[in-house]
Design goal:
The protein is elongated. 18% of the residues are buried. It has three domains: 48 residues, no CATH class; 53 residues, no CATH class; 81 residues. The protein has a five-stranded mixed beta sheet. A five-stranded mixed beta sheet has the order 5-6-7-8-9. It is of the alpha/beta class. Helix 1 runs antiparallel to helix 2 and helix 3 runs antiparallel to helix 4. The chain contains nine helices and ten strands. Helix content is 48%, strand content 19%. It starts with 6 loop residues before the first helix and ends with a strand.
Length: 258
């Protein structure tokens, strides 16, 4: 807003300076004045770029919300260009649509529940999302956990407002689905599990064939905390027994929904 009105003068002045320079007729005061004006403009741009209050970040929106916002903006511009009752009606309709989309998405987010196995190299991160709250189990402390860009990106896209560290231990029952986490201790001898989902973390030294025969898992997941060569061996064993296998290193994060 400050610079654009002067762009025409800047361009014209630049052409004059270049032409006079080629003809070797340029006075020194003109060079100093033009250079000082350019430096002043660059300094102002640099000052604006350093103002955090002018910077909007971590803005997430769905495709539907984006369409509603564009519709409202387009209808508002039409009304400002020519004010009449019909264009006012379009603008108010766009405003109503935006409100309905916000209400729909807010209700949808608050009713959402997911169990997630994230992929992070050398770190095991599992989480349960309930509405706008995400509970995370990981070996990292809370400060490092929240700072992970992986979780920040997920929270932004999913509308998460609170990330909290918790402890699921090694067993989770999510919507009547048994989930067993087998870590470096290699403990999996639990009774009463019905075709559980087995998550392998930190390369446990286990006999996967024996685990499959004992637990009869419905799915085996290997996250980023495991060695790749071990994951490849587990995958081959799972395929031998026709057990679905999810490698987060190849397929990305695993998400279980109701």
């Amino acid at each position: 807003m400050v610079i654009v009105p002067f762009l025409g003068l800047i361009l014209m002045g630049g052409i004059v300076v270049v032409v006079l320079s080629l003809l070797q007729l340029i006075p020194s005061f003109l060079v100093v004045m033009y250079g000082g004006f350019i430096s002043l403009m660059n300094g102002f741009v640099n000052w604006v770029s350093l103002q955090e209050v002018f910077l909007f970040k971590d803005i997430g929106m769905s495709f539907l919300l984006m369409l509603a916002l564009y519709t409202l903006i387009f209808a508002g511009v039409l009304f400002l260009m020519k004010k009449n009752i019909w264009r006012l009606g379009y603008f108010l309709s766009g405003l109503l649509c935006l409100q309905l989309v916000c209400l729909f998405e807010d209700k949808n987010v608050n009713s959402t529940a997911d169990f997630i196995v994230f992929h992070k190299s050398r770190v095991a991160i599992t989480g349960i999302r309930r509405g706008r709250k995400l509970e995370i189990q990981a070996s990292l402390d809370s400060v490092k956990l929240v700072a992970i860009s992986l979780l920040q990106s997920y929270a932004l896209g999913a509308g998460i407002r609170t990330i909290k560290k918790t402890s699921f231990k090694n067993y989770i029952n999510f919507n009547s689905q048994d989930i067993l986490i087998v870590d470096s201790f290699g403990i999996y001898q639990l009774h009463g599990l019905k075709r559980p989902i087995v998550i392998l973390q930190y390369a446990p030294k286990i006999n996967l064939e024996r685990l499959i025969k004992t637990l009869e898992p419905s799915l085996i997941i290997a996250d980023g905390s495991n060695y790749k060569r071990v994951v490849h061996r587990w995958k081959a064993t799972a395929e031998k027994y026709a057990i679905p296998f999810h490698d987060t290193g190849q397929k990305g994060a695993f998400m279980l929904q109701p």
